[in-house]
Design goal:
With 419 residues, this protein is of the alpha+beta class. Among the domains are: 89 residues, no CATH class; 118 residues, Band 7 domain (Tetrahydropterin Synthase, Chain A); 52 residues, no CATH class. The chain has eight helices and 16 strands. Strands 1, 2, 3, 4, 5, 6, 7 and 11 form an eight-stranded mixed sheet that branches. The radius of gyration is 51 Å and the shape is elongated.
Length: 419
């Protein structure tokens, strides 16, 4: 195996946290080998599973002078150039930026205004290795390399857990939450710092981009805020909607009389809303011991016509809108038999079609069956139209008439012979 003369590590991806040299395990290293460590790195030298020394940035020559523990472990019978097996770990000390975090599912919180609300949160964080040897021992272990993708999920879950606890203690209402992003971020970072320090990590920045409810809750909030724009002008808005409803009815030529009836019903409904106010205005003077129409200071017999009180515009608008909605409903077709010519419904009892004037055949009533051939006959028929048999016969013994297909005389019981 060839001896190693230079030991160094280049991070091409920018996401490598730890790299072991060599990656497969120990290698033959001799005294005098050059160790190159960059400004953003630190190198921990191992032999036989024991950390001998930590090297900072610069070029180092491996010798007993800078590896005092190595002199007791390695004998030097060949002038200080004896090869020995060793390994080293390069730890990246740079700050890893723009690591995203966020909640996987909305979390339920109590809200003073909305009662109960579900919230999601997401943002960014940056971290670095603070204690390389502690990080190697607790997180990396014997792995040949370690990158950010292997630890980001753990850190994200840690941040979300602490943030949920902070929100649960400080959230009052979602409507005031945007002004507390900085305070919530600082409190969450302070709680996460101790958790990260146990693994040799340091959280440098924690940014909360947004804390929002799910889309369906946002839609309800937007709907409520839209109504708030017209809160001071609600009567005018309702009058405008009533005018639009009347215009739509007028522009619908197919509505015909049904539309007029609906508008009339709407106006009547509006007057019905006005009546309680008018009656209350008329009854108020009587409740005060005065005659209707009297004003303070007037003598009995002197009356003055008081203008009737009008109902609130909301009630009038609601009545008109209800009438317009009833007017726009399609009229139900009258029940009847379809015309034999144009197939339009003809009401019962009509002899001519009201649409095309075609005479309509009167329905044929069902009568009794013939006593001989059992054919159907109209009521009152004395002879069968199919076989001509008379439907009334007389008893040959007593001479009484026998009808209805009877086989025996109802008077004497003599068998009846059909004609």
């Amino acid at each position: 195996m060839a001896l190693i003369d230079v030991i160094e590590f280049h991070d091409e991806s920018g996401e490598q946290i730890v790299q072991r040299f060599p990656e497969s395990g120990e290698a033959d290293v001799r005294m005098g080998t050059q160790l190159v460590v960059r400004e953003s790195q630190v190198c921990i030298f191992y032999r036989g599973g024991q950390a001998l020394d930590t090297f900072g940035p610069g070029r180092h020559t491996l010798a007993t002078a800078n590896l005092p523990l190595l002199g007791a472990l390695v004998k030097l019978p060949f002038g200080g150039e004896t090869p020995f097996k060793a390994e080293c770990f390069f730890v990246n000390l740079k700050t890893f930026l723009n690591k995203k975090w966020g909640t996987k599912e909305p979390i339920t919180f109590r809200d003073q205004v909305l009662k109960v609300v579900r919230l999601r949160s997401f943002g960014m964080m940056s971290y670095k290795i603070n204690d390389p040897q502690l990080f190697l021992n607790k997180v990396v272990g014997t792995a040949g390399q370690y990158n950010t993708s292997q630890i980001t999920d753990f850190m994200r879950n840690m941040v979300v857990g602490r943030l949920t606890d902070v929100l649960g203690e400080n959230l009052k209402t979602l409507l005031d939450l945007a002004s507390l992003y900085d305070e919530i971020g600082i409190a969450t970072k302070a709680r996460v710092a101790e958790d990260f320090a146990k693994y040799g990590l340091e959280l440098e920045d924690l940014v909360i981009n947004a804390i929002t409810p799910p889309p369906e809750v946002q839609a309800k909030i937007d709907e409520r805020s839209g109504l708030g724009l017209f809160e001071d002008a609600m009567p005018a808005l309702q009058q405008q909607q009533m005018a639009y409803a009347m215009r739509d009815v007028a522009q619908n030529p197919g509505a015909g009389g049904v539309a007029s009836q609906g508008m009339g019903m709407g106006m009547g409904l509006g007057m019905g809303f006005m009546m309680p106010g008018m009656m209350a205005g008329a009854m108020q003077p009587m409740q005060q011991g005065m005659q209707p129409g009297m004003q303070p200071g007037m003598q009995p017999g002197m009356q003055q016509q008081a203008p009737p009180q009008q109902a609130p515009p909301q009630q009038v608008a609601a009545g008109a809108a209800a009438g317009a909605a009833m007017a726009q409903q399609p009229a139900q077709a009258p029940a009847g038999t379809p015309c034999s010519n144009c197939q339009q419904p003809v009401p019962d009892g009509f002899k001519f079609c009201p649409a095309c004037g075609t005479p309509q055949a009167a329905p044929q009533p069902q009568g009794a069956a013939c006593i001989k051939c059992q054919a159907a006959m109209p009521p009152g028929t004395k002879f069968c139209p199919a076989c001509g048999a008379p439907q009334e016969v007389t008893c040959g013994k007593c001479g009484q008439p026998v009808t209805g297909g009877a086989k025996f005389c109802a008077n004497c019981g003599t068998p009846v012979q059909p004609a």
